[in-house]
Amino acid sequence: MAENTEISVPNHVAMIMDGNGRWAEQLGKPRKYGHEEGMEAVRRVTIRASERGIKVLTLYAFSTENWKRPPQEVHFLMQLPIRFFDRFVPELQEKNVRVNMIGFPEKVPASTKKAIYKAMEETKDNTGMILNFAFNYGSRAEIAKATQAICQKVVAGEINVKEINESLIEQHLFTESISPYQDVDLLIRSSGEQRLSNFLLWQNAYSEFYFSDLLWPEFNGDVLDEALLSYKNRQRRYGAV
Ligand code: IPE
Ligand code: IPE
Ligand code: MG
Fold it and tell me: Ligand 1 pocket: which residues have CB below 6 Å?
């Protein structure tokens, strides 16, 4: 397992950014207002995470299940990466942050894909934290896709069934792109909900969980620090004594 230089800082922090809609509704505003403010929280948390020496920050921005929402909301969420990168790429450059994406690009509108790939290209030489957006991501679909790819290799005679092991499966998941930090160390969810919602099921096998009652637009660097402090006091045993 890859080590962080500062021993108790998690290498890979993953966040389920939840509660945008409820935050807006509390203020009597449309849900999209919450998503808009949520972008500022992404900015705050990204900066603090990179200052803390986290290697990968994975943010759950759109799930494969979020297509069930009303079309106008889906449309708004699909446009957000365009606006986010327009606004924040210069700051990401300044912080030496590299952008990455995990998820299924197929259904994502071309203009959104273009914005994401452009941000990835522009930041590709940065050597600091990886800001990894889970966009149109779903863990079960990811595992099914990996299974298909492995089976195809077996059928083609490229690999033997006996060679299928954990490491081979990992190589076929989207998170191969953040190797060697595929495993989540600390999972944070905002808004008081305590569930995974199909997020990184394989990669969260031994992660520590931290739940905050704050809604995502209220989230900030100090809350991240609280989560990091809590993480520092955990004993990770991985099944040993
Ligand atoms: C999280 O906030 C953002 C996404 C899922 C895209 P929600 O939109 O889920 O907000 P709530 O949970 O309805 O308050
Ligand atoms: C999880 O939040 C997905 C993202 C944060 C992108 P949801 O709001 O979609 O999850 P559920 O429906 O509460 O499980
Ligand atoms: Mg939600």
Answer: 17-22, 62, 66, 77, 191, 216
Residue 166 CA to ligand 3 centre (angstroms): 31
Phi, then psi, of 124 in degrees rounded to 5: -65, -25
Atom 14 (ligand 2): residue with closest C-alpha?
197
Q: Is 19 left (phi over 0), alpha (psi -120 to 50) or beta?
A: left
* pTM assigned to the model: 0.96
Q: Which CATH number fits domain 17-232: 3.40.120.10, 3.40.1180.10, 3.40.630.30, 3.40.50.2300?
A: 3.40.1180.10
Summarize pLDDT for 24-64 with one digit per residue, the tens.
Answer: 999 999 999 999 999 999 999 999 999 999 999 999 999 99
Mutate which of 26, 40, 191 for ligand 1? The one with the most ligand atoms within 8 Å of its CB, which is: 191
Helix axes 221-232, 31-51, angle to 10 degrees: 50
